[in-house]
Specification:
Alpha-D-Glucose-1,6-Bisphosphate, Chain A, domain 4, globular, seven-stranded antiparallel sheet, 36% strand, 156 residues, 7 strands, alpha+beta
């Protein structure tokens, strides 16, 4: 991990298994606009947010109750000059026990301050991990983006 990669950590009272299950329930904390599998090794899923953001992830590492890693296979932003900024980056969820709690350390490897999307993505990931995923873990209810109707004639 580079010191400049985006990362954040949360601590919860739930078990590593509960944290792992929440992470892999991507529709429960990130977006209900997810197509594809989100829990098994080699699963691929596509995330969409209106016509603003679309990306495809592949689960490249799945260690129950310990770690989940996504590889960003492709990405499209409508608000950056480089529309593919995330392509080739890696997103990692590491679960560990710390002082009678479960720690989740999230790192988006390659999402660095030099990226045009960094500040927008920093705020988005901070909210999704620190609020929505945390709430899914602790209360059973996250705040994912709601399901949207398919967008027609989009460049995504």
């Amino acid at each position: 991990m580079s010191a400049s990669d985006f990362n954040t950590t949360i601590l919860v009272d739930q078990t590593p298994a509960e944290v792992f299950n929440a992470i892999t329930n991507v529709r429960g904390w990130w977006s209900q606009n997810i197509e594809g599998g989100t829990a098994q090794l080699n699963d691929e899923f596509t995330y969409r947010f209106k016509d603003v953001h679309k990306c495809t992830m592949k689960l490249t590492e799945v260690v129950p109750d310990k770690k989940v890693t996504w590889q960003v296979l492709d990405n499209y932003f409508d608000f950056t000059e480089d529309k593919t900024e995330w392509t080739g980056t890696k997103i990692e969820f590491e679960i560990s026990e710390k002082e009678h709690q479960t720690q989740l350390h999230f790192t988006h490897h390659g999402l660095v301050p030099a990226y045009e999307c960094y500040h927008v993505c920093f705020n988005a990931w901070s909210n999704y991990i620190g609020n929505s995923l945390r709430n899914l873990i602790t209360t059973g209810k996250g705040q994912p983006n709601p399901i949207e109707n398919a967008i027609k004639n989009t460049k995504l």
